């Protein structure tokens, strides 16, 4: 028995090493199984160490029982992962039917004079084909780049709410800014408004019970999007809801990269200044962000909210072509990954990318290399000091290939750059929650807003210029004779790719 365990442990360990060093396979089943394989390997290794050094027969029997129970549990979990990856849990099917009902409540007005260029039209068509979300025309939008201003505008909008407040964050913390949100949400709920909050159970695992209890006592409906235990049982340990949404009366919506915590205000001394980007939306785009929230609410609660009260009449007359795009590991399409790939490969003049995590699949790396080699200006900005040092090593493992293709890489040196934005030819802009990494593009549920407007695109380009001015450019010279330590760090960094 022990010899069999030794063989299985070594096989699993070698499979993990081979996967990380030689292949990056963005398949739902493989990425879903990965953290469990690591866990199984650790459990077997610990069991072997115990059996090797302890001779107490009773204790050894206990170890065998624990390992046996673990194997049964792991088998059940692997079945769940397979069911999720093959859409056998019926959630996506039910969600689609629910979205169909929501679409009957609101209908976008057509604006015949909106003429998108072929590249823009192609991306808009792609998004509608793989998500069912159409291009909208009657919108008003503002980019907000200062974290304090982002929170201030959210709180001001919440304070002016008349009917409903819907909030979804990957991370919610019981700290200064979390407390401010808690108090205003309690007040609005006590005033009779419908207030709902979703948080990701893994991203917000440190959120105190007192925080949740206080909100519930005031009448706020609070639910976690899969706790850690639920995620393990559902086979979703490697999947999270990474979306960020604040929707007021179905009229005003905010989305972007920012979560609800003091570190986003630069109050974490280890991180320092926090640079992020958020977009405020009014009009038809806000309706679609509301629909995304309601679909997430349905997942967390199995409650379908089908009332026109959640969608205020559109009063925006300005024309701003905009489209919401969502993605998740269990849709098979990797929608935002397709959008990023299409944007990069369609570029004629320039590509600007801001992302804190640069973990590239083979296809995405090839798209960036090919685009740069054909003469398009490719600029990638990411933090010099990441929030977790091994992530920085993983990011750096892609620099040499990008630099050889003449892409430019900048490391932001004025704090932590958390913005997630892709700008192409000063005409197409994507802003939202999705990073350019394995987790965002193949594992988590994400939400981005596509903007087809030169004025907003130029404003975003000004933000990119500020990012680059506060960055250190990485050059190919830095990689001509890199120290052995640097190569080792990059190799270690690649070991965590399936988890980032």
Automatic annotation (TrEMBL):
<feature type="domain" description="PLD phosphodiesterase">
    <location>
        <begin position="413"/>
        <end position="440"/>
    </location>
</feature>
<dbReference type="InterPro" id="IPR022924">
    <property type="entry name" value="Cardiolipin_synthase"/>
</dbReference>
<keyword id="KW-1003">Cell membrane</keyword>
<protein>
    <recommendedName>
        <fullName>Cardiolipin synthase</fullName>
        <ecNumber>2.7.8.-</ecNumber>
    </recommendedName>
</protein>
<dbReference type="InterPro" id="IPR001736">
    <property type="entry name" value="PLipase_D/transphosphatidylase"/>
</dbReference>
<keyword id="KW-1133">Transmembrane helix</keyword>
<dbReference type="Pfam" id="PF13091">
    <property type="entry name" value="PLDc_2"/>
</dbReference>
<feature type="transmembrane region" description="Helical">
    <location>
        <begin position="31"/>
        <end position="51"/>
    </location>
</feature>
<keyword id="KW-0472">Membrane</keyword>
<keyword id="KW-0812">Transmembrane</keyword>
<feature type="transmembrane region" description="Helical">
    <location>
        <begin position="7"/>
        <end position="25"/>
    </location>
</feature>
<feature type="transmembrane region" description="Helical">
    <location>
        <begin position="63"/>
        <end position="82"/>
    </location>
</feature>
<dbReference type="InterPro" id="IPR025202">
    <property type="entry name" value="PLD-like_dom"/>
</dbReference>
<keyword id="KW-0677">Repeat</keyword>
<feature type="domain" description="PLD phosphodiesterase">
    <location>
        <begin position="237"/>
        <end position="264"/>
    </location>
</feature>
<keyword id="KW-0808">Transferase</keyword>
């Amino acid at each position: 028995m022990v010899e069999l365990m030794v063989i299985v442990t070594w096989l699993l360990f070698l499979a993990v090493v081979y996967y990380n060093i030689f292949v990056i396979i963005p398949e739902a089943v493989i990425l879903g199984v990965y953290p469990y394989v690591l866990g199984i390997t650790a459990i077997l290794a610990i069991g072997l160490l115990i059996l090797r050094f302890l001779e107490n027969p009773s204790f050894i029997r206990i170890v065998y029982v624990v390992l046996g129970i673990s194997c049964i549990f792991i088998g059940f979990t692997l079945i769940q992962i397979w069911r999720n990856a093959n859409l056998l849990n019926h959630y996506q099917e039910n969600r689609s039917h629910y979205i169909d009902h929501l679409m009957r409540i609101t209908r976008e007005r057509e604006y015949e004079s909106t003429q998108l260029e072929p590249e823009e039209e192609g991306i808009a068509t792609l998004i509608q084909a793989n998500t069912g979300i159409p291009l909208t025309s009657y919108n008003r939008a503002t980019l907000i780049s200062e974290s304090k201003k982002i929170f201030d505008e959210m709180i001001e909008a919440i304070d002016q709410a008349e009917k409903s407040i819907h909030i979804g964050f990957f991370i919610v913390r019981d700290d200064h800014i979390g407390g401010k949100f808690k108090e205003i949400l309690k007040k609005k709920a006590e005033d009779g408004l419908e207030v709902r909050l979703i948080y990701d159970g893994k991203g917000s695992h440190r959120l105190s019970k007192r925080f949740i209890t206080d909100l519930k006592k005031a009448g706020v409906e609070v639910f976690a999007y899969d706790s850690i235990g639920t995620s393990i049982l559902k086979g979703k340990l490697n999947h999270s809801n990474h979306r960020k949404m604040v929707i007021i009366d179905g009229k005003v919506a905010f989305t972007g990269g920012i979560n609800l915590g003091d570190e986003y205000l630069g109050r974490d001394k280890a991180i320092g200044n926090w640079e992020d980007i958020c977009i405020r939306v009014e009009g038809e785009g806000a309706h679609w962000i509301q629909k995304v929230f309601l679909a997430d609410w349905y997942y967390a609660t199995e409650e379908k909210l089908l009332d026109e009260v959640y969608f205020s009449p559109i009063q925006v007359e300005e024309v701003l072509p905009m489209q919401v795009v969502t993605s998740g590991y269990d849709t098979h399409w990797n929608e935002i990954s397709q959008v990023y790939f299409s944007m990069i490969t369609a570029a004629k003049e320039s590509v600007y990318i801001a992302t804190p995590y640069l973990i590239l699949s083979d296809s995405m790396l090839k798209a960036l290399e090919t685009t740069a080699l054909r003469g398009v200006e490719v600029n990638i900005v990411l933090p010099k000091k990441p929030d977790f040092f091994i992530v920085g090593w993983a990011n750096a493992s892609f620099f040499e290939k990008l630099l050889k293709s003449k892409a430019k890489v900048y490391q932001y040196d004025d704090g932590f750059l958390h913005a997630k934005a892709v700008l192409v030819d000063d005409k197409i802009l994507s802003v939202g929650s999705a990073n350019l990494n394995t987790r965002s593009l193949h594992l988590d549920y994400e939400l981005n807003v596509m903007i087809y407007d030169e004025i907003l695109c130029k404003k975003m380009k000004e933000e990119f210029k500020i990012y680059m001015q506060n960055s250190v450019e990485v050059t190919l010279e830095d990689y001509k004779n890199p120290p052995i330590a640097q190569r080792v760090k990059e190799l270690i960094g690649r070991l965590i790719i399936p988890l980032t």
